[in-house]
Every structure is written in structure tokens, then in C-alpha cells.
Amino acid sequence: MIELVAERFNFIIVIILMMTGLYAVVATGNLVKRLVGLSLFQTSVFLLYITIGKVFGGQPPILPEYSGGYDSSSSYDGDAGLAAGHGAEAAGSAVPQGEAVQQTAEAIYSNPLPHVLILTAIVVGVATLAVGLALVVRIRETYGTIEDEAINQADYAVENARRNA
Amino acid sequence: MTEFDWTQLLDYALMGMLLAVGIAIVRLRNLFAAVMLMGVYSLLSAAWFVTLDAVDVAFTEAAVGAGISTVLMLAAMLLTAREAEPVKAIRHWAALIVVSVAGAALFYAVGDMPVYGDPNSPANSYVGMDYITSTPNEIAIPNVVTAVLASYRGFDTFGETVVIFAAGLGVMLLLGLNSGKKKGDEE
Amino acid sequence: MTPHLVLRVVSKLLIPLIVVFGLYVHFHGDYSPGGGFQAGVIVAAAVILYALIFGIDSAKRAVPTWFVKFMAALGVLLFGGTGVASLILGANFLDYDVLHPDLAHHTGQHIGIILVELGVLSTVFSVMMAIFYAFAGRAPDIPEGEW
Q1: Are B167 and A124 a contacting pair at CB < 8 A?
Q2: Residue B169 pLDDT
Q3: Could you tell me the residue range of the domain that residue C59 belongs to?
């Protein structure tokens, strides 16, 4: 049991952080504080994805500069190298490319897919957070408060006044 | 886990700090302090992303979480309130019950999850590793994350860009770009 | 804003460096960590720093609101346009191989990735700026003394 938990410590910590965020969302009436809790929750979901993609002994998924058909001395954005010795290299290009592939297969890399998903999710997250904050600002301007109970009371008061009239 | 990996000490330290900051955010009622701690939390998680090999993500999280979103929350706080009102005790208990039930359900599922760092886990076995082996032959750029982001999953990224655009549009519609509180703003 | 002499001098030194760093992150994103998302946020952070120190009005003179609106739409159009270009050239949507005949070195892929990342940079930068302008342009109606 202890070993089972110790080998999955990342999930334990992510769950605790997630629940911290959820608590902040539920246990406060302040709308800005709620959005802070939501981003807490969101960041812990990011951590969940990234820890799943981690591979022991791995390195960041950035491959070494291999020579995909070019001379190894020239970097591969250089069109100059292409123009200079393309004909001579074309025949032998299969060999270095095969070597490069072998080389990359030896090294261990962490899974790049969660990184891609979370990378975009972070920027989308801040954009949607801004929409939420904008709504809160509009609520503040209309109701004069951002506490949910006070907002509800204001709504009830309007409703009652309409019913009595 | 055959032998003890000393870099895990770094993981534990960062996790401890994340927990401390998270709990502090929940307990604080001063919104300014909560927002600043949220920036700290983002920076700490960015540091942890680096040890988890997600350098691109760490980069983004440090720039977005500790930079832009802190500024945004401060700006929103300036327009709304400085302090959260205290809530009734029953609400704390209700929240505690909700959180315990949800947390217990999640803990129950932990046993079925793959071991941390497992290279053969379902998430790490199939398509993710395929990207690493085929990027040199199909895209020929070293950063696999960029290759997947812009080429293999370009359609995804297109969707995300449209979402960001739509969110910006929404904020412009809600608050207005040039407003300042001028006449005609309130109806 | 005259009292913040140190801030003004230091930020004048730093802001160009931040922008250059953002562009480096963008164009070196194929080789090292980075790309359009990060670059857009970093460049936006530079302009936001400028706005925080020199005032929102001077920031709006440097990066006008019409420019922000224009670039946000242009980025999405550039991204979608790259996809449509590959459609017109006879491949699938966002299949960049057809953009350049040099298939052996995947030049088409590189061109496509740079174009797409430029679109992302443009949209992310301008949306971040638009959001900041929208929030900062509103006058707070809480008196300062309440702090």
C-alpha cells in the first residue's frame, strides 16, 4: 500500500492541490477569489498532465541537431549548403539520416504530447480567465458588490418589488 | 524505482512549497495577497515543469501565470474589491464535505493509474512516442513540441487560436477597448 | 509618474531587450523551447510594462487600439489562410508539404510552421494587449483611501 502510494506521489499531490482549488471555489462568496480558486484548480490539472508524460531518466523532447541530408557542419536552415553541395551529397544522404534516427532512438525523451496540449491550454486559460474577470467587473458596476449572497439579495429585492407592484 | 533519484528531492521541495502556497491562498481573505500568491504558485509550478522535462510549458507558465494573469487579476481587483467578505461557518463545512467526497473518489482511482515516470504507461506508449521517432523524418526540426503543435496537431492549434481570439473579442465586448468610464457607458 | 526615476530608467533599458528576446523565442522556436504562444505573451508583457510605468495613454500611442484589433484578426486569418493555401495546392487542410517543392528537406513544413506560428504570435500578442487595455482603461470607482 505504501509502495503503491509512493510510486504515484504525483497523483496524490495533484489531487490535494485540485481539492484546494475546489475548496476555494465553493467556500467563498467573493467572485474574484473564486476565479483565483479556479486557476489554482486549472494549474493542478496542468501538473496532472505533465507528470503523466514524464519518463524516468528522460530529457526534454528536443532532438539533437541531426543532419537530415546536409553536411553536419552546416545547420539545416542554410539554403547555401543546399546549393553548394547538393548533388554530391544526394547520393550519400541516406546514411547520415539513418544514423541520426538511430541516435535519437537511443536517448530517452519525455512524452511531448501532453506538453503540446498544456502549452496551448495555458494561454487559452488566461484568455478565458480574462473573460471571467470582465464579467465580474461588469457585475461590480451593476450591483456594487461581488459577493454572491449580496447579489442574490439584490435580485430578490427587485423580484419582490416587481411582484408587489 | 530501483534506486533513489536525488533529483526527486527537488520535486518534493517544490511540491511542499506548492501545497503551502495553495493552502495560504485558500485561507487568505485579502485579495491582493491571494492574487500575488497565485503568481508565486504559477512560478513554482513552472519550476516543477522544468524538472518534469516540459521546458516549453514551463516557459509559457512563467510568462503567462506569473506575468500576464497576475496583472489582469490585479487590474480586475482594482475595479472590484480589495477584501473578500467572511462567509458563514456552514459554508465552510459544506465545502469541506464536497471536497472530501470528491477527493476520496479521486484517491480511490489513484491505484489504477500508471506509476510515476513509467515509460510503458498507456499515455507514453503510443502516439506521443511516435511523434518523437517520426519528427526527424517528416518535419525535420529539433523541437518536437513545436512540430506537434504547428504541424501534426495544427488543426488543434488553429482551434485554440480561434478560442483566444474569441475570448479577446468577448472582453472587448464586455468592457470596451477605449472606454474609461465616460458618459454613455452606463445606461 | 515623475517620482519613479529608477523604474523609468531601468525599464527603458529593459523593454527593447524583452521585445528582442520575445522575437528570438519566436524565430528560434523550431530549435529550442519557444514558439508563437510564448513570444506573443513576452512581447505583450513588454508593452504592459511600458504601460504600467509610462501610463496607459503613451502605451496606446505606441500600440494603438486599431492596430491591436487588426492584428488579432490578422493572426487568425494567417493561420487559416495557410491551411487554405495547402487546400488550394491540392493537399489536406494544414498539410504544409505542398507549400514548397523541396520535399527531401521538408522546406514546405518549415515554411508552414513559421507562417502558422506568426499567426499565433500576432493573435496572442494582440489579444493580451486588448485584454489589458480593456481592464486598464476603466476608471476604478473605489476611492483610493479604501486600500
Answers
A1: yes
A2: 93
A3: 5-137
Give residue-wise pLDDT tens across range C39-62.
999 999 999 999 988 888 899 999
Q: Hey, what domains does chain B have and what are their CATH numbers?
A: 1-85 (1.20.120.1200), 119-178 (no CATH)
Min mean pLDDT across A21-30, A34-43, A50-59 is at A50-59
Give residue-wise pLDDT tens across range A54-105: 888 888 888 886 544 443 343 444 444 334 334 444 444 444 444 444 444 5
Site from A101, A109, A110, A116 to mutate, B interface, most B CB atoms within 10 angstroms: A116
Which of A65, A119, A127 minimises the CB distance to C127? Answer: A127
C143 in any annotated domain: no
Lowest mean pLDDT: which of A146-150, A157-161, B95-99?
A146-150
Query: Nearest residue of B to residue C38 by CA position?
Result: B60
Domains of chain A: 2-61+111-164 (1.10.287.3510), 65-106 (no CATH)
Phi first, then psi: give them for residue B121, nearest 5 degrees.
-65, 155
B132 chain-A contacts, CB cut-off 8 A: 61, 63, 104, 109, 112
ipTM of the complex: 0.89
Q: Is the CB of B149 less than 8 angstroms away from the CB of A119?
A: yes
Neighbours of chain C (3+ CB pairs under 8 A): A, B
